[in-house]
Amino acid sequence: MPFELQELRSFGNALHPLLVEARANDQREDRWGIRYPFFRNVSITNAEGDLIPAFSRDISASGIGLLHNVELPPGMVEVRIRSTKGYIVAVQTRIFWCQSSGEGWYISGGQFISIPNVGDF
Predict the structure, then answer these.
(1) How far apart, in whole angstroms, are the C-alpha atoms of residue 82 and residue 9?
(2) What are the sequence ranges of the domains in the chain?
(3) What's the gap between Cα 57 and its chain centre?
(4) d(C-alpha 16, C-alpha 76), whole Å
(5) CB 108 within 8 A of CB 99
(6) What is the pTM of this model?
(7) Which of 27, 87, 111, 117 has the most CB atoms at less than 10 Å from its CB?
(8) In terms of Cα–Cα distance, which of 91, 89, 94 is closest to 121?
(9) Nearest CA-CA partner of 62 in 108, 37, 93, 25
């Protein structure tokens, strides 16, 4: 059954604040280059050598958005991304920001720093 006009207006009114938030977050991330949605399992190794399972959110030629359940301080990490062809791309990444998303989850943004290593590690 199609929405009635009033329901569409209510639906739009309900979503509008979320769209404003999404736009503000997009501008805050201050990425260089075009981003592509990229939801995939990744692993992060921090400076202490801890392996942190995570998900990528999006990717560009210069950086990556991440979702994880550990707070990441600004600084260097290694991000490993498995391709659909089976190989792994490992790249040194500088985490610039990390914020809580609630329920023990965090989102962060990182800039690729090194030339990626490719292998089966």
Answers:
(1) 43
(2) 1-30, 32-119
(3) 3
(4) 36
(5) yes
(6) 0.77
(7) 111
(8) 89
(9) 93
